[in-house]
Amino acid sequence: MSDKSFEEMLEDSLVTIHNGEVVEGTVIGVKDNEIILNIGYKADGILTKHEYSNNADIDLTAEVKPGDKLTVKVLKVNDGEGQVLLTYKRLQQDKMNKIFEEAFENQEVLTGKVAAVLKGGLSVAYGEGRVFIPASLVSDMYEKDLSKYQDQEIEFVLTEVNPYKRRIIGDRKKLIVEKKKKMQEELLARIEVGMMVEGTVKNLTDFGAFIDLGGADGLLHISEMSWGRVEDPKKLFKVGDTVRVMIKDIADTKIALTLKLEENNPWKNAAEKYQIGSLVTGKVARMTDFGAFIELEEGIDALLHVSQISIEHVEKPSDVLKVGQEITAKIVDFNEDTKKISLSIKAIELENRKAASAQKAAEPEEESVEE
Question: Least packed by Cβ within 10 Å: which of 135, 191, 192, 253?
Answer without folding.
Answer: 192
